[in-house]
Design a protein that fits this description.
The chain is mainly α and 131 residues long. The chain has one domain (13-129): Four Helix Bundle (Hemerythrin (Met), subunit A) (Up-down Bundle), CATH 1.20.120. 79% of the residues lie in helices and 0% in strands. Helix 1 packs antiparallel against helix 2 and helix 3 packs antiparallel against helix 4 (99-129). The relative contact order is 0.17. The model has no long low-confidence stretch (mean pLDDT 87). Bound molecules: fe (ii) ion (FE2) (2 copies). One fe (ii) ion (FE2) is lined by residues 62, 77, 81, 117, 121-122.
């Protein structure tokens, strides 16, 4: 199941970073495919756990690069990463109550969040630091 589609407007202007982001989106879609149609709480919990882990691994790399470079926007950028991870944690209850609606909410929040984060924080970061 496709939760997220890559769009040209997501590009941060650095090919290797765009590739990383595309792979992250692919991974999210693969995880979503694994639980398609599932109504079992365990499977959904595992899915959200893996999704959270995959996304935070990507964020950790960016935060390390920012810390190493003494990047001035580190704190705000990190706070935006935390906001998405928190949203994913909060979605657990929605999924258990209503898996269809949970998936819809997750799709909306990932699309909105990635759309704005790539175009703002990540574009500025990779514009300043390159890869
Ligand atoms: Fe990123
Ligand atoms: Fe970021």
């Amino acid at each position: 199941m496709t939760l997220l589609n890559w769009q040209a407007k997501y590009s941060v202007g650095v090919a290797s970073v765009d590739y990383e982001h595309q792979r992250l989106i692919e991974m999210i879609n693969e995880l979503a495919t694994e639980i398609e149609g599932s109504v079992y709480t365990d499977a959904i919990e595992l899915f959200l756990g893996e999704l959270h882990a995959a996304i935070s691994a990507h964020f950790a790399l960016e935060e390390r690069a920012m810390a190493k470079a003494d990047y001035e926007e580190l704190e705000d950028h990190k706070a935006d990463h935390e906001a998405l991870l928190e949203q994913i944690r909060c979605m657990m209850d929605e999924f258990v109550a209503d898996p269809e609606n949970g998936r819809k909410l997750l799709q909306e929040s990932l699309t909105n969040w990635f759309g704005q984060h790539f175009a703002t924080f990540d574009a500025r970061l990779h514009g300043a630091l390159g890869e």
